Structure formats: structure tokens, C-alpha cells
């Protein structure tokens, strides 16, 4: 297991390097001059050039990338052009807010999605299946910004049950987590249903039923357990999407997380902040895929031998 872990970990290194190159180049293609934004509309060309030199923007692209990578190796992501504070400090102030929102969204969406998927697959072509899949299709089809606005209108403005903005207390996470996790729950439900239906066709399920086992025991002990490998894949990938896809939800609810920070940074052309945030979102996927591979190896030891 250790050798497999080491092999998969080392394979991540070139992926991270490739991601860093694409992130660095992507940010440089964003229209607008960050030096002009920092200097202000009334600054002279000389002032703008001085700021560009201070920020290192007058260097060639390879030189800028070298300085960027050397800084990353030292744990230095640069200084925010907007706040003039270290990027690591600005991200650190908001990172845990996004993580809390993501974890809460994932918890309820996994529970709801798995339950809907199991009961839909178990009762295929019955009213339970139609009801569950209707909810799933609705969750995928409804735009997150519209759902967020409707939740604010009903539960925050009219009923006054939850706050409309901010991140103070658990109540402030309810509406954003529902908005963020609705599509994830729907995807997990559909994937779980398909996995349950396929496993129900296996010979060992017919054998278990022939032995006289109750249907609930067959479903939860044999079918559900064997569908977990497929479900783990979806849950892991959706966790990455939640971390990176919180931009719209955080903007709707004025939630102080990484998503809203990214929007502000793009509007200001804050290069160091933008490339650091995109790199962090990308690293989430890389790390999550690594964890999924390791979970596979734990659930199915044959994978280690391949």
C-alpha cells in the first residue's frame, strides 16, 4: 500500500507543474492593465510605468513565471494589488468559510442523494422512482443563482427564518448550502440509482434472495456496499466542484469566501490573487483525485497490483 501511495503521489508533481503554467498564462490573457488599476485613472504614464516595474510586469513572461514559482516554493504567493497585503493572508481570512460551506453542502447532498438513489433504484419504474428522478432532474436543471434568489425571497425576506448575507453562525450556512448542494445531490442520486440497478442484476443478489434474506438486508448489506466504489468517485469529484463552484453562490449571498474573493480580484485585475485562487481550486481537484485513488486501493486491493 505504501508503494502504491508513493507512486500515485509522485505522479501528482508533473500535474501540478502543468497546472501552474496554464494558470499563470491564463491570468496574463485577462484584458486590462493591473498597473493602471493600481495607479488610478489620473496617474501619468510615468507613474504607471513605475508601478509596472515595481510589480515586475515589465519583465518577460518566462522571467515572471520563474519569480512566481520561486515565490511559491517559499510559500509566498505575492502581494494583493488591491489591498497591498500578502495573498496568503487574504486567502487565509476566507478559506475556512468556503470549506465550511462546502462541507455542509456535501454532507446533506450526499445523504439526500444516496437515499433518493437507493429508493429509486430499488423501486425501479414505480412512483418512488419517478418522484426521486423528478427531484433529481429539477436539482440539475434549476440555475443556482435563481434558486438562491428564490430561497432568499421566501425564507429570508418573507419568513425571516435565515439571514440573507454573511457567514455568522450555522443559520447563515443553510440557504447557501442548499443552493450549492442541490445539483450535487441530484447528480449523486442519479448515479446511485444507476449503480443500484446494475448491481441488482448480479447473480449473487439472486443467490442472496434465494437464501431467504429480507429485501432490505439484500439492498443495504449487499447492493449498497458494492455500489460504494462508484459513489465514492462521484462524491470525490463533486467535492472538488463544490470548492471551485462556490463563486455564483457566494456572490448571491455576499458570502465572504474564496468565490466572492475571486470575483472581486477579477474586477480589479489583481493578478497575484487571481492566479493563486485558480491554482488553489485546481490543486483541490488534484488532491481529491489522489485521495479517490487511495480509497479505491483500500476498497479493492486488486487495484494496487495493476
UniProtKB/TrEMBL annotation:
Gene: gsiC_2
Membrane protein topology class: Multi-pass membrane protein
Stored Gene3D superfamilies: MetI-like (1.10.3720.10)
Taxonomic source organism: Tissierella creatinophila DSM 6911
Pfam assignment, any one: BPD_transp_1_N
Family: Belongs to the binding-protein-dependent transport system permease family.
Annotated protein name in UniProt: Glutathione transport system permease protein GsiC
PROSITE patterns per UniProt: ABC_TM1
Compartment(s) where it occurs, according to its Swiss-Prot or TrEMBL record: Cell membrane
Function: Part of the ABC transporter complex GsiABCD involved in glutathione import. Probably responsible for the translocation of the substrate across the membrane.
Predominant localisation class: membrane
Record's GO cellular component terms: plasma membrane
Membrane-traversing stretches: 12-30, 101-121, 133-157, 169-191, 229-253, 273-296
GO BP terms in the entry: transmembrane transport
InterPro entries in the cross-refs: BPD_transp_1_N, MetI-like, MetI-like_sf
Start and end residues of each ABC transmembrane type-1 domain: 95-296
Keywords of this entry: Cell membrane, Membrane, Transmembrane, Transmembrane helix, Transport
